[in-house]
Each structure stands twice: as structure tokens, then as C-alpha cells.
Amino acid sequence: MPEPVIDVPETLDAGRYRIEGVIGKGGTAAVFRALDTRINVHRAIKMLQPKAAASASFRERFKAEAHAQAGLKHPNVLMVHDAVDDAQGVYLVMELAEKDSLEERVQTTGPLSPLEVVDVGIAIGGALAAAHAAGVIHRDIKPANILVDRYGVPKLADFGIARDMSRSGLTQTGVVMGTWAFMPPEQRVDSSQTDARSDIYAFGVTLYSLLEKKDPSLLHNPESWPAAFAVVPPAIAHVIQRAIRFNPEDRYADMQEMLSDLNKVRRALLRADETVPPEPAPPEPAPPRPSTALLVGGAAAGLMSMIFAVTVLAGALWRLLPSPEPTGPTGEPPATVAAPATVADPETPVAAPETPVAAPTVAAPTATAPTATAAPATSTAAPATPVTAPATPKTPATASATSTPPKTPATIRVIDVAGTPEAAAGTTAPPPATASRSTGRLAVRTIPSEAAVLLQGRLLTRQGGSYELPVGSHTIELRSASGETTRLAVFIKGSGTVEICYNFDTNASCTP
């Protein structure tokens, strides 16, 4: 099929919007990237092509899309800022989602992880719940119509064939509209007979297509389900299979019921991802290892033994040389010093000789090192028996060369996603070289400022200008001072700070 030829204007709305390129195109409309020169903000402009704009039914449907999408105030619905019908054509001015659609992401990088799929399901499911509450049935839910903005927030787009339950006459009886692979059975027969459960069917098929790179039309036949769901986590498979039942009465009654199950699956996935090692059994007592101070003391003792041996050898050589007999202070030969007795126990006191004996100078031992027994340096005769070295005292492995008290062990803080913080008391943090952070930081800015930040209904406390959250995907709730609330999906990393910015006045993301 040849590519449709489209007309690309240079500007729109008397020069306010400067067209910078084509984002997408179809048989009836094209989407342009444009700069709003009045406020210097980029927008997406969806414009009917001249042939479609000449049709009264197309123009009416286009206005219905603007009416349906602009009336939904939800952070996961792509915002419509304006609808224009002038001499240049009929077009919608919309929020620009700067990243690819989820369909393009799956084709480029592969299927999403189960937790990512559940997070997308909770975000877009909330958008669908808001649409259904407003009486709007989308009728074309698929990955190509879920866009991602610059902050990673998924946005539901393209309400071109949406059915507004408060309006009638736009869909004729017996007309089939939508994307075949994602259509529920009733929509394949008559698009006018759709309701919220029809969107639930297409939403279930969409979640499956984000998990598996397979033809989603296979799900039309329940006999293919065992093979189709072979590698899908059972908890997610249960939710999807209930959403895509053939009879609408067998599906979820509404999106709120499906969202409840998706939140349960998310909590189960997070619990399964927690890698808390079991408490080890008490180890067998091991012989104490010498501390650094003890090793240094031992080396010093060895050096002194060598000095003593050299001294004894020098004395023996000196005796072989002729020399006058030494005399004491009174002219008499000095008394002979007896060799020390064998030391069997270092704690047994050794009687000191009657005549003082000069001992070699020994460095002062450290606080925890045992004091070495000094041997006489001026003894003129070798000991009669070998001197038994004192037994090494048993010193605990944690002995330190200084008297500094040990530091208190660090603890790892575990955040319960259900809303209750718990501390894993006594859990020692791994060494810094191999530690992996289990939490990250989230910085939040809102317009107006001072909005409350909640996670699973629990008010978060700001610490140092940001919030601490577990690593992984979360859906946070922002609540303004006037009571407005919005929910945003964020992904927390173990390093750096994730920044988000939300403007309650425009119901859109802003620059942090």
C-alpha cells in the first residue's frame, strides 16, 4: 500500500505554531511536531488531511475526539490544549510525548519485564477508569496508542474512535471500527455495542503484547492459551485471562476491579524480588588468628633472638683471644653469673640474679601485644638448656592494636511497599566494595508548590530536599494544597536522584 501523501504547512494559527516535522501519518490525519512560539513550548498537532476535512462526518468525529480527550483530567491521558477549525484546516493541539510509543519500544528493545507491564497496567488502567466514569469508551486500546513522555510517564492517546455514551449517532449499527487483533468479539461484529468491558478486553490483550512478542490475535481462541501463556508469570496470566473472556459477563465488571488485582500482583512481584539472605547458623569456634599487633610483636621478638645469638657467638670468640683477667672494683674477679633456668610457664615468676645483669633495650609493646621476656645480653656462658618460648596467648580475632571501641554495625533499611516501613534490625551492611544500594532518591517539584507526596496511601517525609524510596518502579500520588490529586509512575535507581515535576494548573509534566 503506497504511503499517503500529506500536506505539511509551515505554520498554523496565524504563525503561532511553527511546524518542525512529521511525527506520524495515516489515511485521514497526520501528526506534526510544532513549536508554540507564543510560550516557547513544543506541542503535537493532529491535523485532518484536506480530503477527510471535506467530509462532514470526519469533521464531526474529529471534534468528538477533542471533546472526549479534553474532558478527561488524568495524568495518564494525553492532554488536548485546543481544537481549531479555520481556513488552514481542522486540527487538535495536544501535549507532546517526546518518547516512542510502547509498540515501538517493544519492537526496538524487546518485551517489558513483568513488573514494568504491571506498572503500565496500573497507570493506564487508572486513565481508563477515569474515561469510563466520564462515559467515554476508547475502543482502540493497543500499545501504539500508549505514548511515553520525557519523564517515562505512559499516556493514553488517540480517542479518534472513542464512543461518548452521552452522545449518539457517530457510530452506525453494524459498522466495525478498531484494530482487529485487540478487538473483543462483540466489537468485531458491531462497534456500536461496546461498553467498558470491551475496553477491558483490549486492555488485557495489550498487557499480553507488552510481555510477549507474539501475534495477540492468537488470544481470540482459548485453545491456544496454554501455549501462549507458557512463560507468563501465573499471577499476571490470571488477570489477563479473566480480562479477555469471550463473554463480557465473565470479564472484570469494571476497571477498578481489574486495578485491584493488578495492585495485588505488583505487591507479590516486589516480595519475590526481595533478596533477603537467611540468617546463617552460628559458626563453629575457630582458633584465634593473631592480630597485626601480635605479628609485629612476634617479629620484634625474633629480631631480639637473633641479636642475642650474635652476642653469645661474639662472646665465645672473645674468650678465645688472650686477654688480662678482669677484676672487679675491689681487685677480685667478678662473680660468675649462673645461666637462667628453663622457663616452662610464662606466668611463673623467674628469680632475678643477685648481681644485676644488663638487658638489651626492647621497644615498648602495644596495648594488646604480650610482653616478650628479655634474655641477658652480657651472659658469658650459653644457657645449659634451651629456653622454651612462652606459649602464644589466645587472642580473639578482632583484637586491635589500639583501644578505639568498635563501630556500631550499619543497618539496611527495608521499605514495605504496602505502606509500612520496617527496619531489618541487626542486618549488617555488606562491605562498601560489593554493596548494592536498595534505596534511591526522588526529588519532586510541583506547581503550585508544597504538594504532599504519598506512596500506597502513606505520606512520605522529605529528607534533605528529596524522598527515599526502594529501587524499582513505583506509582506515587501527588496531592495539592487545594485537594487535587494525580498519580505518576516513577523508576528509582540505586544511584543518583530521579527528578519529577508536575503542574497542577496545566495537568501536565513540567521542567524540574
Outline of the structure:
The protein is α+β, with helices and mostly antiparallel strands and 512 residues long. It is built from 10 helices and 20 strands.
Task: Explain what this protein looks like in three dimensions.
With 512 residues, the chain is α+β, with helices and mostly antiparallel strands. The chain is built from ten helices and 20 strands. The chain has helices spanning 50-53, 56-70, 102-109, 114-133, 185-189, 196-211, 225-228, 234-243, 255-273, 292-320; strands at residues 11-12, 17-25, 29-36, 41-48, 80-86, 89-95, 136-137, 146-148, 154-156, 163-164, 413-415, 421-423, 439-447, 452-455, 458-459, 467-470, 472-479, 485-492, 497-503, 508-509. It is extended, with a radius of gyration of 41 Å.
SS field, number of helical segments:
10
State the helical fraction: 25-40%
Shape: extended
Alpha-carbon distance between the termini? Answer: 44 Å
Query: Average pLDDT value?
Result: 74
Main structural class: alpha+beta
Rg estimate, integer Å: 41 Å
Count of DSSP strands: 20
Q: Strand arrangement, largest sheet? A: 1-2-3-4-6-5
N to C succession of SSEs: EEEEHHEEHHEEEEHHHHHHEEEEEEEEEE
What are the low-pLDDT stretches, counting only 5+ consecutive residues below 50?
Answer: 168-175, 275-282, 290-296, 326-332, 334-436
% residues in beta strands: 15-25%
The largest sheet, given as strand count, sense and whether it forms a barrel, is:
6 strands, antiparallel
Task: Furnish the topology, listing elements before pairings.
Layout: E1 11-12, E2 17-25, E3 29-36, E4 41-48, H1 50-53, H2 56-70, E5 80-86, E6 89-95, H3 102-109, H4 114-133, E7 136-137, E8 146-148, E9 154-156, E10 163-164, H5 185-189, H6 196-211, H7 225-228, H8 234-243, H9 255-273, H10 292-320, E11 413-415, E12 421-423, E13 439-447, E14 452-455, E15 458-459, E16 467-470, E17 472-479, E18 485-492, E19 497-503, E20 508-509
Parallel strand pairs: 13-19
Antiparallel strand pairs: 1-2, 2-3, 3-4, 4-6, 5-6, 7-10, 8-9, 11-12, 13-16, 14-15, 14-17, 17-18, 19-20
Helix pairs in contact: 4-6, 4-9, 6-8, 8-9
